[in-house]
Design goal:
There is one protein chain. Helix content is 6%, strand content 46%. With 369 residues, the protein is mainly β. The strands form seven sheets. The chain has a five-stranded mixed beta sheet, with no helix packed on it. Strands 6-2-30-29-28 form a five-stranded mixed beta sheet. The longest helix has 14 residues. The protein is globular.
Length: 369
């Protein structure tokens, strides 16, 4: 089992910081579209957008959160009329007109994931009541349900080709076979001896057979889904809860913590390759997403801004917030979810962020000439 030692971490972080001297921001980002909540200011918190996911075709965007709705948007409609040359245009929409359709859910949602091998017709969700529910989007009805966490909140769900996973406040990650109609577990994993909450789970999309977990015990873990008795690696370095884990490339993983930093890890030897700092994150889940093709990392901030990091450099290459939303009047607002489109473009990318006030923000990035 691989465990990172603090001295090794400090040495590798210092090496990464030396490389920062060569930092070169190659991207320009523009806020192209804002989809606002129609709720009054006193009810805005009830429409918080906490989770966002693009479908496998990168055509549809699904969102979930406190409002007990899964909303589906067509990204081409959100970017309709976008002009990269016009630096002043900003498209203003509202959820009522921008949303293609929505599905009501019985509880507040903490996680959503598109189920693989369903041609984008099924989406899974984890909720505050500890239930995993899958919905058929064509019929807009639930088609599968698991309630195996004793009513404790599910923070995260994910899928590999044939295995589903859910991480919960009960301190476990449960794995099940998505090919079976029943809800029997394939395995139950308890990463933390003290049963600290499992805040995030993600399967390695690069075929290593690993699943990563971020926990409230300040550590991240990887397990081999074929043998879950003990972790393959333990990633030690965050000073507070590890809120997100994301695989960035082969043998590379990014973690986010409520200690206000992101970390890039080598999953083979569990060594820290770089620490990213700049955003504000002391208490809330602010979102984490990676654009694997471009090597970019996006996260939210309790300063109500969106931050973009390049995997090569520790400092952010860009940050942006909605005009008029920064300052003392927005102290209770923050960005709480982000998601990249996983497109294979060379010089253009799209990042969507969700706010605690219920707004969606669509950013388009262009590579500088």
């Amino acid at each position: 089992m691989n465990i990172t030692h603090p001295q090794q971490q400090e040495q590798e972080v210092e090496e990464g910081e030396k490389e920062d001297e060569k930092a070169n921001n190659e991207w320009e980002f523009k806020l192209s579209t804002v989809i606002s909540s129609q709720s009054s200011s006193s009810r805005a918190a009830s429409d918080t957008v906490g989770v966002l996911e693009f479908d496998p075709s990168d055509r549809l965007l699904a969102t979930g959160g406190i409002a007990r709705k899964i909303r589906i948007y067509n990204i081409s409609s959100l970017l309709l009329g976008y002009d990269a040359q016009d630096t002043t245009s900003l498209r203003q929409l509202d959820h009522l007109t921008a949303c293609e359709y929505y599905i009501c859910t019985p509880a507040k949602l903490s996680s959503i994931r598109w189920k693989p091998n369903t041609s984008g017709s099924v989406i899974g969700s984890g909720d505050y009541d500890g239930v995993v529910t899958e919905y058929n989007l064509e019929k807009r009805v639930p088609v599968f349900e698991r309630d195996e966490h004793g009513g404790r909140r599910i923070w995260s769900v994910d899928y590999s080709h044939w295995v589903g996973a859910s991480g919960s406040d009960d301190g476990t990650t449960q794995l099940w076979d998505t090919r079976c109609s029943g809800d029997e577990c394939v395995a139950v994993v308890q990463p933390s001896v003290g049963r600290s909450s499992v805040c995030c789970v993600e399967f390695d999309p690069f075929g290593s057979g690993l699943i990563a977990m971020g926990c409230a015990d300040r550590n991240a873990y990887t397990y081999d889904i074929r043998k879950t008795d003990n972790p393959v690696s333990v990633f030690v370095g965050h000073e507070k809860t590890v809120s997100y884990v994301r695989f960035l490339g082969e043998h590379m993983m990014v973690t986010a913590g409520t200690d206000g930093c992101l970390k890039l890890w080598n999953t083979v030897n569990a060594h820290s390759m770089r620490t990213f700092k700049g955003h504000v994150n002391n208490r809330s889940f602010v979102g984490l997403s990676v654009w694997r093709h471009g090597g970019l990392i996006g996260c939210g901030s309790e300063s109500n801004e969106v931050f973009v990091y390049d995997k090569r450099w520790s400092e952010p290459i860009w940050l942006g917030g909605l005009e008029g939303t920064l300052g003392p009047e927005s102290e209770d607002k923050f960005v709480c979810g982000v998601c990249w489109r996983q497109v294979m473009e060379v010089d253009e990318c799209t990042l969507v962020a969700g706010g605690s006030d219920g707004a969606l923000q669509v950013y388009v990035g262009k590579k500088k000439a």
